[in-house]
Request: fold
Amino acid sequence: MDLTRKRILVTGGGGFLGTHLLRRLQRLGCDEICAPGRREVDLTERTAVARLLDERQPQVVFHLAARVGGIGANRRQPGTFLYENLVMGVELIEAARRAAVEKTVLVGTVCSYPKRTPVPFREEALWDGYPEETNAPYGLAKKLLIVQLAAYRQQFGFLGVSPILVNLYGPGDNFDPRTSHVIPALIVRFEGARRRGSRSVTVWGTGQATREFLYVEDAARALVLAAERLDSPEPVNVGSGQEISIADLAALVARTIGYRGRIRFDPSKPDGQPRRRLDTSRAAERMGFHARVRLAEGLERTVAWYRSLGRSPASARSAVA
Reply:
C-alpha cells in the first residue's frame, strides 16, 4: 500500500505515539491526514465516530487513541481503562467497516498477554491465560479488539491489522508521576533527587521484574510498515527484543542523569507482570521491522528532551498536549 496516495485518519494524533506517527507520515509525503483531538470527537460516542468517518472518508485508519497509564493508574481506574479502550475500538472498527475503509491499523499492547507467558512471548500465547491483574482490564479490552478484527475479516472481508507494542518511551512521553509509565517516572524521580542532593531514591517493587522497551520513533516506523505490508488480522509483536530488569533499568537511568545516591526498592508495591520480552520474528518476516535505537541511546535523548522543558512534569505535560 502506498500511503502517500491515501486519505489517512489518525486517532490519538495529539498523544505521545501519535505525534511521532504524524511526523513520519508527513515526512513520507502524506498530505491528506486528519487527526482530530479529544475535544473535537468523543470516540466513545457511536454517532460522533460515524460522523467523523462520513465527513473525512479516510482510506486508512490508525487507531492510537487509548486510556493508558502505569500500574498505579490502572489500579485506581480499572473500570475506566476497560470501558474507554473497549468502546473506542469497537465503535471505530464498526464505523470503519460501514465506511468501507481499506485498512485499519489497531495498536495492541503487551499487557494483553497472560501473566505467566513463556519468554519470549510468541503471538500464539496471547490466548493462553488471563493477563497480569494490575492491568488486566486494559489488556483484555485491547485483546477483544483483535478478536473483532478477525471476526470482521471472516464475515465482511474487513482488513484490519494489529501490531502489538511493548512499553514505549522517548521525547514527548507522559511525565506526570500520577499516570506515567516506568521510564518517565524514573527520570522524574532521579532528576529531582539529583537536583535536591537526595541520598536515596525509592523505586516500586522488588526490582526483579523485567521489561522490554521500544523507542517511540521506532514504534512510529513500525506502524507505517504495518499499514504498508501487513494483510492479516493476526497480531504481530513489535519490540526491541531486549529484556532488562527494573533494577538494572533504574541503575541505567540514574547513570544517564548523573545521580549517584542509593537506589532502594519497596517490595510492598506490586511488580506487575514478572517478565516481558517479545519474540519479534514475525515482525521481521512480514514487515521487515527491526528496532534501530538502543535503550542507552534512547534514554540519553529522552533525558535531554525532558531537561529542555525546564525539568517540570507540568511543563512536560503541556508540551505534549
